[in-house]
Amino acid sequence: MTSERKKEMARHWSERGTDIGTISRLLGLSEDEVKAIIANPPQPEPAKPAKGYGPEFIEPLFK
Question: Which segments in the chain show pLDDT lower than 50?
């Protein structure tokens, strides 16, 4: 399993034009692994559902 930091670095260097051989050598990964990381960008996390149906009640500052 490759760490998230190494995946971020591989994507970043790839975007900057670094060749796959150099990325794999610097990160200690196989070229196939680097290719797979670049081909599969991270998916954003789904939005968390809101609690209840409306906004939560907030007490006024002044009475």
Answer: none
